[in-house]
Amino acid sequence: MISGQSLYYRYPDGKGIEFPDFSFSQGSQWLILGPSGSGKTTLLQLLAGLRKPTKGTLTVDNKNITKFSGTELDAFRGGHIGLVFQKDYFVESLTVGDNLLLSQYLAKKEQSKKDCRAILDRLNLADKWGKKMSALSQGERQRISLARALVKSPKVLLADEPSSALDDGNTERVIELMKSQAAEIGASLIIVTHDQRLKDNFQAKIELT
Ligand code: ADP
Ligand code: MG
Fold it and tell me: Mean of the pLDDT values across residues 142-163?
């Protein structure tokens, strides 16, 4: 369970952003829609424990993570959160497989080639295991980025504008893949986007203004 109450964030020299209250049950799938500048990326960073709210409470599994120390937040992120950004950074000189194993290592999870391979297989990327990241297309990298989040078995999968560089067909495929894979591992899915095309893919929606 993740809930936010009276969440407010102010950047130094920036205007404050007020967020609507929310409550996401474990395994639920949410779309957070809003125009550019409405605070979507900021909210995702708050949910990931990458920023602390200026005011308000953010509760995850009955714990108020706004009270966590830096070390506790790092552990929380490693254990709980899978992040997929539109532009992703990999270790380019490593293979796909090693990037996935590295993700498990950094999350302090047991490294399992078998599990990493199984996830690649589910994403139709089984043949990419030994390929260097630099040898992949943009679409493949995006799916590897999803794989990298999934191999940590996160409780929450967070995605920032996952469809902004995609045509209609690929948007539908990537979003449905995220939904099915999140469900497969029992993770909650939270996607933030300005992309109105995603509206019909989600029943649960929040609008930022
Ligand atoms: P979105 O992802 O919806 O486009 P953001 O969360 O990135 O919105 O930004 C919300 C608001 O905070 C915007 O007004 C933006 O200009 C401001 N903002 C974002 N990042 C910073 C920053 N690092 N420093 C100051 N202001 C920022
Ligand atoms: Mg953004």
Answer: 94
pTM of full prediction above 0.90 = yes
The pick from 10, 11, 86 for probing ligand 1's pocket by mutation, whose C-beta has the most ligand atoms within 8 angstroms, reads: 11
Residue 79, C-beta contacts closer than 8 angstroms, at least 6 positions apart: 107, 108, 109, 154, 155
Q: How many angstroms does the Cα of residue 112 sit away from the middle of ligand 1?
A: 37
Q: In this structure, are residues 155 and 26 in contact, taking their beta carbons and an 8 Å threshold? A: yes
Round to whole Å and give the CA distance between 18 and 7: 6
> Can you say how many angstroms the Cα of residue 94 is from the centroid of all Cα atoms in its chain?
22
Residue type, 85: F
Give the CATH number of domain 2-207: 3.40.50.300
CA distance 53 to 154: 22
Which pair of tokens denotes residue 50? Answer: 């990458």
Classify residue 73 as exposed, middle or buried by CB count within 10 Å of its CB (0-12, 13-18, 19+).
Answer: middle
